[in-house]
Write a structure and sequence with these properties.
Elements: E1 14-17, H1 22-31, E2 38-42, H2 48-60, E3 63-67, E4 70-74, E5 82-83, H3 85-88, H4 98-105, E6 107-111, H5 124-132, E7 136-140, E8 143-147, E9 155-157, H6 163-173, E10 179-183, H7 189-200, E11 204-206, E12 212-216, E13 225-227, H8 232-245, E14 248-251, H9 259-267, E15 271-274, E16 278-282, E17 292-293, H10 305-312, E18 318-322, H11 333-338, E19 342-346, E20 349-353, H12 363-396, E21 405-410, E22 413-419, H13 420-423, H14 433-446, E23 452-459, H15 474-491, E24 500-504, H16 517-523, E25 525-532, H17 535-542
Parallel strand pairs: 1-14, 2-13, 5-6, 9-10, 17-18, 23-24
Antiparallel strand pairs: 2-4, 3-4, 6-8, 7-8, 10-12, 11-12, 14-16, 15-16, 18-20, 19-20, 21-22, 22-25, 23-25
């Protein structure tokens, strides 16, 4: 489909049956891999993502049949334990197969995920959780290899409540030996349903619906029949359409999943009637401005943030939307501005000044804004590339955490900081064996990234270097250390030298105070800065 042509100005009315939730069905599909036999899933939405996941399961050897929203998955004879790149790259949720395959078969090989480019979604939490359960994790040519003869229970605490990691670790833990405790677990409705499905399959899980899950591993699970919960995002979208366009009744919906959304709509002046499995919203010609902040469940869903901004664009006054989940999830705002919306952005905050109405975008505006959208698309691609690269590097250097290694992504770059203790003896520029091991793993993760430039910066503390041979001071020491890293990377991998730059910063860019021994130790470091090549961006700007 090349385009959609919408002729607006019409009222909406009638009944809408809400589809099954995509975010619920995908982990349930993955859970079918935990048991021999046929799992039957009802109310399955016919979407590209569900079709892709069916292809992935089929590739693993499962027999899948999908007809009229009913999906049957026979996982009796799994013939492959590999989730290939060409399937995983299109959908991050493909990573869900890692936990079930590892739990049931003791090993798996899964490509690093791709998919949605809205902000970084690292897989670190997944991998660290699997390691806590006793799995050995390796990275090889963009694939994560996980092995364990027998997973064992462990205590896992997420710094941030990750939906994906909660689901993946949960599915691995149900067949692990002993007890697993997951704290700060996600509590979204689709996580609750996954827990309920696993319990029906024979799993022992306590704390369902809370952020603390206790899983007592069992030896075997059995297939079940399950009906997918309604899609709260689809329901929320129709509710906001009904708020301004007509009277709409939603059927096959769970109002409890939308508590915060319904509260905000009522504050906006909407007339809403609730039944057990239905919601009626009536048109309101005078929408009141209401501020929201996205948050994990039961907070306002980030997946409804764009719809809320559209609604507030025609509210009677100004409102503020704060995005706390994916800080760059405002790509829809330029499109609304083209329709006449008054929206300004500052970091993760959108300020919306409501207008009487929005108007259809004119052709001249389309032409004028085309370059802006293309620029944003390029930047989003670069950000997505960097997020995936950061995941690969984090996985490659997993065993070096706590040894002076930090990895971060900011300002369109990936920063890898390695303290002196990980690489060199004090005052030396000769790499030690552990440093060579770390850099060898890093080089393997970088050698195929032809669109990434690599800057190596050497840093010292403020204590003057006593001099040794031609190395006279901290300037010289920082340069020769950076150069030794460059030589190591080029000698141990296929990284082209034209992608590498060595620089010495001496003592002049400290990150800690040099007044303490601990601070000076942190300042003696190597910074490896990864920057995407921007020739396509420059080419667009020149045209």
């Amino acid at each position: 489909m090349d385009k959609l042509v919408i002729n607006g100005g019409k009222t909406l009315s009638g009944n809408v049956k809400i589809s099954g939730a995509k975010n619920a069905v995908l982990p349930i599909m993955a859970s079918a891999l935990l048991a021999e036999g046929t799992t039957t899933i009802k109310n399955v939405p016919d979407l590209r993502d569900t079709r892709t996941f069916i292809d992935l399961l089929t590739n693993l050897g499962a027999k899948c049949t999908f007809d009229k929203s009913i999906l049957s998955i026979d996982a009796s004879k799994i013939t492959s334990l590999e989730a290939p790149y060409d399937l995983v790259k299109t959908m991050r949720a493909s990573f869900y197969v890692m936990g079930p395959l590892l739990a049931r078969f003791g090993e798996t090989k899964v490509s690093l995920p791709g998919g949605c480019a809205w902000g970084p979604r690292p897989v670190d939490y997944h991998l660290k959780g699997f390691e806590r359960l006793g799995a050995k994790i390796d990275l090889n040519q963009g694939y994560i290899l996980a092995r364990s003869s027998q997973l064992t229970g462990g205590n896992i605490s997420f710094e941030i409540a990750s939906v994906g990691a909660t689901a993946n670790i949960l599915m691995a833990a149900v067949l692990a030996k002993g007890q697993t405790l997951i704290t700060n677990a996600a509590i979204e409705p689709h996580i609750v349903q996954l827990c309920e499905v696993l319990i029906d399959m024979g799993a022992d899980i306590d704390g369902v619906g809370t952020n603390k899950l206790t899983i007592n591993g069992v030896q075997k699970l059995h297939p079940v029949e399950v009906t997918v919960i309604p899609d709260m995002i689809e329901a929320g979208t129709f509710l906001m359409a009904g708020a301004t366009l007509g009277d709409i009744q939603l059927q096959s919906v769970d109002p409890e999943h939308l508590t915060i959304v319904l509260e905000k709509l009522q504050l906006a002046g909407c007339d809403i009637s609730l039944e057990t499995d239905s919601i009626l919203i009536k048109r309101n010609n005078r929408i009141k401005p209401v501020d929201i902040t996205t948050d994990v469940h039961p907070g306002f869903p980030t997946d409804l943030q764009a719809q809320w901004i559209a609604l507030m664009s025609i509210a009677d006054g100004a409102s503020v939307v704060t995005e706390s989940i994916y800080l760059d999830r405002f790509s829809h705002v330029p499109e609304l501005i083209r329709l006449g919306a008054d929206i300004s952005l500052e970091n993760n905050v959108a300020i919306i000044r409501g207008q009487k109405e929005l108007i259809g975008a004119q052709r001249e505006l389309v032409l004028r804004e085309k370059k802006v959208l293309e620029l944003k698309s390029i930047i989003n691609r670069k950000d997505s590339l960097l997020s995936t690269l950061k995941d690969r590097i984090s996985a490659a250097l997993l065993g070096f955490e706590g040894d002076g290694l930090t990895i971060s992504q900011k300002s369109g770059k990936v920063y890898i900081s390695l303290e002196e203790q990980l690489l060199f003896a004090s005052g030396s520029w000769q790499l030690d064996s552990r440093g060579r091991d770390a850099l060898s793993k890093l080089s393997k993760a970088l050698e195929n990234q032809q669109d990434i430039n690599i800057l190596i910066e050497g840093h010292t503390d403020s204590i003057p270097f006593g001099g040794r041979g031609q190395i006279k001071d901290n300037w010289d020491l920082s340069v020769v250390r950076a150069t030794s890293i460059v030589r190591m990377l080029t000698s141990s991998s296929a990284i082209s030298p034209d992608r590498l730059t060595a620089a010495g910063k001496g003592e002049f860019l400290p990150i800690y105070s040099n007044s303490t021994a601990q601070g000076r130790s942190g300042n003696r470091r190597i910074e490896i800065i990864l920057t995407p090549k921007l020739y396509d961006l420059y080419e667009l700007l020149d045209n």
